[in-house]
Design a protein that fits this description.
It contains 6 helices and 6 strands; from the N terminus they run E-H-E-H-H-E-H-E-H-E-E-H. The protein has about 140 residues and is an alpha/beta fold. The chain has a single domain, classed as 5'-nuclease (Rossmann fold). The protein has a 6-stranded mixed sheet with strand order 3-2-1-4-6-5. The radius of gyration is 15 Å and the shape is globular. The two termini are about 30 Å apart.
């Protein structure tokens, strides 16, 4: 029996990841876009925060280029995620969106708010720092 290609890991990107990738040319965090076997997603809620924080035309152009590879999901109603109560109000829809999207990982560089959840799996979503994700990806390189 043959198996098809492995299912890609679904990475839900928080606003700070998108902003950091667009902030400067050749940002290390933009290496996430070069990873194989991943599907990149985010939400319209996250995109609202991104748009409020990027103002330079060059950064907006970089973001547009990056977003060609990112699916933006729109959610009517988000699930109740009790663990989200550990987060500030503005971050709760990010975690709930990742859960609703059935992401494998929520990638967030927000150490202050998501840091205590790094490494934890919440409703199937592992909260992961971008640096950890990139370190694991480097270990898999030949």
């Amino acid at each position: 029996m043959t198996t098809g290609p492995a299912k890609p890991s679904v990475l839900f990107l928080d606003a700070n990841v998108l902003i950091s990738a667009a902030w400067k040319d050749r940002s290390e965090i933009a290496l996430i876009w070069q990873m194989e076997g991943v599907r990149l997603i985010t939400s319209n809620y996250v995109m609202g925060e991104v748009q409020r924080n990027l103002h330079q035309a060059i950064q907006i152009d970089r973001l547009r280029g990056l977003m060609r590879a990112v699916q933006i999901m729109s959610f009517g109603e988000l699930p109740d995620v009790p663990e989200a109560k550990l987060l500030p109000e503005k971050d709760r829809p990010v975690l709930a969106g990742a859960v609703k999207a059935k992401a494998d990982h929520l990638i967030s560089g927000d150490k202050k708010h998501f840091g205590p959840l790094y490494g934890r799996r919440i409703h199937g979503v592992r909260i992961t720092a971008p640096g950890e994700l990139l370190a694991v990806a480097r270990l898999r390189l030949p």
